[in-house]
UniProtKB/TrEMBL annotation, chains A, B, C:
Ammonium transporter involved in the maintenance of acid-base homeostasis. Transports ammonium and its related derivative methylammonium across the basolateral plasma membrane of epithelial cells likely contributing to renal transepithelial ammonia transport and ammonia metabolism. May transport either NH4(+) or NH3 ammonia species predominantly mediating an electrogenic NH4(+) transport. May act as a CO2 channel providing for renal acid secretion. Interacts (via C-terminus) with ANK2 and ANK3; required for targeting to the basolateral membrane. Keywords: Ammonia transport, Cell membrane, Glycoprotein, Membrane, Transmembrane, Transmembrane helix, Transport. It catalyses: NH4(+)(in) = NH4(+)(out); CO2(out) = CO2(in); methylamine(out) = methylamine(in). It comes from the Eukaryota. Belongs to the ammonium transporter (TC 2.A.49) family. Rh subfamily. This is Ammonium transporter Rh type B. It comes from Balaenoptera physalus (Fin whale). Residues 23-230, 241-329 form the Ammonium transporter AmtB-like domain. The chain crosses the membrane at residues 20-41, 53-73, 85-104, 111-133, 139-160, 172-192, 212-232, 307-328. GO terms for molecular function: ammonium channel activity.
């Protein structure tokens, strides 16, 4: 069956290869879902979307190579197919999660350097977990969410800015930016069953994943509404400890959005694996836990492997995030000053509407900081001496 | 073939199961299409989308159970599969149509109660029509559109508010809310061929449905442009009779959007069934009108059943809507006062942009009315003594 | 295999017919991608989207007939299927590209007349290239992009307005219109692999196309970021020669967006065809260059045919564009005056928010110019005597 993935030649077409539709939904989530979600910052919309594009375009290519080396390198060639595109998109997803933790506090060159490192570690972690340890992680709770979140959070810790308050006034949202975040949310919600089931094998595994995701989404949506109605204004779900005690400035809240759910998902996976039996899964056991089905491993052993996989992930993420943070502190990079975080104007130039002809796709030209003293408006220039992270 | 639908185990995978793509498009329509369409109200955007999510998340789960009992209850279990997800989405669609009729005039608890009842009646009506009467309703003209519209309209009649004028100034749209309605419209337009063909069998039935929908959409779009150009400003397509004579306050115009087209579609279905022959459909007759193909029913008989199905639907919808309206009038529910209809602030709290960290997905916390006297702005408080529906 | 395309009856279902998902993505691109992209003009948003709908709805139907006559007319019937919908969407794409060149400078009746002609020429050109010359053009570099761009540019030249400066102030974008252009861009980016691979045969051809498009997109995105950072504000990629020397007013910049890339793609296709060998393509040669695989043509001959196909396209586009321009100059048509270009109010009436009931889908009614002297605001009326193109 693995042959279908190889784009070079298709062997027997009895069962059609994975239709590009499975890939398409993953792709929509990465770009519309993630991309729009981060547009909530009131003056950072073009950076949020623009850097999402930049990072994703880079990560997709680099991970095609990295994951290609790990998974499909034969006879001197990396074989690519729909699975390659999906895996690369997943890796880009992890990078965008990390981006969410440091959103607004880095420049594009820093982001590319982060992706350069993170993609390699993602591929390595995924290889260790899935190929060496035989861990199952269909929705990427460990390989995507936990890894991406803690890589980004540790990196954010290393890049801690004590003077970030200078940009506080820009750290919120306004009506139109909220609208975009809402579009992003809706797209993520709609396409999550497809996202989670894309890497699973056609048939039982895919059905099971899609259905489970679908019911989880509806149930958690209702629970969220109920809980927020009960908790109300005073008891909001803030994360004060993260910033004040641990010095982790988490712009998008990736800890509660990806980190904690990722760990929770991994732990539940430990439990579920430990309880897996032939009776519960029927013929489906082979596609969900093949080693159990073949009798090569007990359910308890699988559960232990799952738990170990979580620790391996946390280690790769933390060590990687620390290393990444140190790299990003290199002085010649394009880190914005503390007073100019969450600000589009440092990196984007809005072209005057009277230039002609007006090309639809090149409204904003990416600039490097330092060339825009005149663009920097009065309010920016008049601030206190700036400190750079 | 029905085995594929069963998520428990797949029998022979020679013909691949319905790809989740068919489900995906239906899902996109329900959430982006319906959700965004109702954002046209200038101060009710977050309620429109938020309550769409709430209602849909609830209806999807409840109808999975209800329809599961009707269609796939065997051996003590409800069997679920892609078809379950699609059918649940269709039921949620009918609930959202009803929501459109009373948009802005009810609180979330009332909506959940409405859905609790409506989902049961939807399932019952669908079972009577499709399983008992052998009626064909691929696009849901009767089961979704007619049912949803008249359920909502009768419910709106029971909830008639003579003093609704107090909220009149909020009942319109502004530029940015129109933009969302436009996005919703475009998504509905694009995905309608998939929506209509999702429940049909792969092959002839699906092709026929997708093609017919596609051509209908293009033709009706052109006709609408032509007609509006001819009719112009003075002869606009208003529905004055509905409100002034029949006391039905129909916020979204679901009568002309779903009610009338639903009935028209059902009547055309009567005609088309009456004219069905083996010559016209070829091998496709079996998938479109199986009872005709097997010779168990004449075309005229099928037509009569279709017509009877329309009446059954109207009865379920009217009786259900009346009952629903009476339930929603229960005094302890969260109905907004006449002067505070179409207003987000009663139910949603916008969090200050300076609270941190800012979690992308929890910008608004659902509140219950009564706890927000201080939120209620001057203009709201200064109004005449409020009457409650 | 071609039988599957025929909606009338399906032969053997061993290999499933092209799923509607392939069509769905093309459809999304045409309506959300193209439609939103052209909303960048600050006061022409409703016209951009509205006329996109109008043109597409018309072109889809007319090209179903035209292409039906060319490709699938048997036994007195035009046979339609999923391929018909995809081909019609592609033709609509070419028409929308041409629309981009003259965006803001024509009225709806002119646009319909342009589409009436262009669809016929599109069908003819496509037939000559694909069926007679055996040219390969999977992504439509010649048949869609080159043809659509140069048809529109030549038409724009014939409709040259020396006094267009009078509308200059409306020819730019503002924040909210840029947001829409950005949404359009993102959708086009996401769905391009599906768009390009939709017409190819399932299996090798489709994989190859999707993968190539995917990698091209990521690589060109990175290159664009890099280049714009290097070029910066002074050296922007303007097209001054087009307007000042050649008198082609190209509103959307379709020359650099579709024209030049279309020609470049065609030339690269010439090169690639010339270098095609059995070794390079393996079994895939048959689906990419069938005449080469069967030994009926040499690679060099195929390359020459590809080049000739480019010239045929340019001729059809130029002659067609000239003829179209002359037709559109007919005095009784609805061309806007020079001072009222890029202006929604000539064609659309915004209904007062207090009219009720408010139907979601009919907010704007299409109007014809001349009936709106009172709508034309002071600033419009007070201008110099208007010249009409």
């Amino acid at each position: 069956m693995a042959d279908w993935w190889m784009g070079g030649s298709l062997s027997s077409p009895e069962c059609p290869p994975l239709t590009p539709a499975g890939f398409q939904d993953v792709h929509t989530m990465i770009f519309v879902g993630f991309g729009f979600l981060m547009v909530f910052l009131q003056r950072y919309g073009f950076s949020s979307v623009g850097f999402t594009f930049l990072l994703a375009a880079f990560a997709l290519q680099w991970s095609t190579l990295v994951q290609g080396f790990f998974h499909s390198f034969h006879g001197g060639h990396i074989h690519v197919g729909v699975e390659s595109m999906i895996n690369a998109d997943f890796c880009a997803g992890a990078v965008l999660i990390s981006f969410g933790a440091i959103l607004g506090k880095t420049g594009p060159a820093q982001l590319l350097l982060m992706a350069l490192l993170e993609v390699v570690l993602f591929g390595l972690n995924e290889f260790v977990l899935l190929s060496l340890l035989g861990v199952k992680d269909a929705g990427g709770s460990m390989t995507i969410h936990t890894f991406g979140a803690y890589f980004g959070l540790v990196l954010s810790r290393v890049l801690y800015r004590p003077q970030l308050e200078k940009s506080k006034h820009r750290q919120g949202s306004v009506y139109h930016s909220d609208l975009f975040a809402m579009i992003g949310t809706i797209f993520l919600w709609i396409f999550w069953p497809s996202f989670n089931s894309a890497p699973t094998t056609l048939g039982d595994g895919q059905h099971r994943t899609a259905l489970n995701t679908y019911y989880s989404l509806t149930a958690s949506t209702l629970s969220t509404f109920a809980l927020s109605a009960l908790v109300g204004r005073d008891g909001q779900l803030d994360m004060p400890i993260l910033e004040s005690k641990l010095k982790v400035q988490d712009t998008c809240g990736v800890h509660n959005l990806h980190g904690m759910p990722g760990v929770l998902g991994a732990l539940l996976g430990v439990l579920v694996a430990g309880l897996a039996t032939h009776e519960a899964y029927g013929d489906g056991l082979e596609s969900v836990f093949p080693l159990l089905a073949k009798g090569q491993r007990s359910a308890t052993s699988q559960a232990m492997h799952q738990l170990f996989g979580l620790f391996v992930t946390l280690i790769f993420a933390s060590v990687g995030g620390s290393l990444g943070g140190l790299l990003l502190r290199l002085p010649f990079l394009d880190s914005p000053p503390d007073s100019q975080c969450y600000e589009d104007q440092i990196y984007w130039e809005v072209r005057s509407p009277w230039s002609c002809p007006f090309t639809c796709s090149s409204i904003l030209a990416l600039q490097v900081p330092g060339e825009h003293e005149d663009l920097a408006q009065g309010p920016l220039r008049a601030e206190e001496p700036e400190t750079r992270a």
